[in-house]
Amino acid sequence: MIVSTRQTTAKRTEIADAALRIIGERGITALTMATLAAELGLSPGAPFRHFASRDEILEEVAHRVVELIGAAFPDPALPPLERLSHLFLARTEVLGRNTGCGRLIFSDQFAKALPENAAATIRGLVRQTRTYLVSILKEASEAGQIRNDLAPEDLLIPVIGTLQHLAFLASLPADGPPLRRPDPKRALNTLLTLLSLPDKHAN
Fold first, then answer.
1. What tens digit of pLDDT does each residue of 16-32 get?
2. Closest C-alpha among 118, 125, 168 to residue 16
3. Any coiled-coil ranges, and where (predicted)?
């Protein structure tokens, strides 16, 4: 689990959450001091009482993403596939409630719009998640719980891809074209089937 030692305040967290909502619903270019103040129901200059600049707000947003996503890491004492399942469902739930998180994590375009410190924070989260998932897949493979004919790094691709697709669907505007959003539990079951040991008797 990611533990942040960074000190913040309730008001800074409230502002970061509002910024995340704007990013998720309207995109990062829509995040201005004026739109942020309107989202919070404050005067245009109010955010400056807590942040010196838009870049500083985005740095706080990146730390907030780490807090929200980092809280989804499961109990390390659980068996590997249970850890994978818990992480998958927790991540899809967090990304569904906070669409800005998915945009910042999975979109290069969004990441490039961040100040370097904020982008580095997001990259660190992505690296930690990938390392964590590879270790789970390796442990499960060595225990004979999933297929071992493919490397854990290769099995990571459908895991990350499924999470990314669910995050993308969750971020679509509600007034857009109607699209069927898969049930995360059903998506997880499909993923576990793909990861399962190949049937030796299959033609």
1. 999 999 998 888 889 99
2. 118
3. none
139, 140, 146, 152: CA torsion to nearest 10: -30
Measured between alpha carbons, how far is 117 from 191 in angstroms, rounded to an integer? Answer: 34
Residue type, 102: G
Query: Residue 191: what are its φ and ψ, rounded to 5°?
Result: -60, -45
Could you report the per-residue pLDDT of 110-157, keeping only the tens digit for each? 878 899 999 999 999 999 999 999 999 999 999 999 999 999 999 999
Question: CA 136, 142, 145, 147 torsion: positive or negative?
Answer: positive
3-state secondary structure string, the chain?
A: CCCCCCCCCHHHHHHHHHHHHHHHHHCHHHCCHHHHHHHHCCCCCHHHHCCCCHHHHHHHHHHHHHHHHHCCCCCCCCCHHHHHHHHHHHHHHHHHHCHHHHHHHHCHHHHHCCCHHHHHHHHHHHHHHHHHHHHHHHHHHHCCCCCCCCCHHHHHHHHHHHHHHHHHHHHCCCCCCCCCCCCHHHHHHHHHHHHCCCCCCCC
User: Could you give the CA distance from residue 94 to residue 68 in angstroms, rounded to a whole number?
Assistant: 7
Q: Residue 47's closest CA among 75, 81, 22?
A: 22
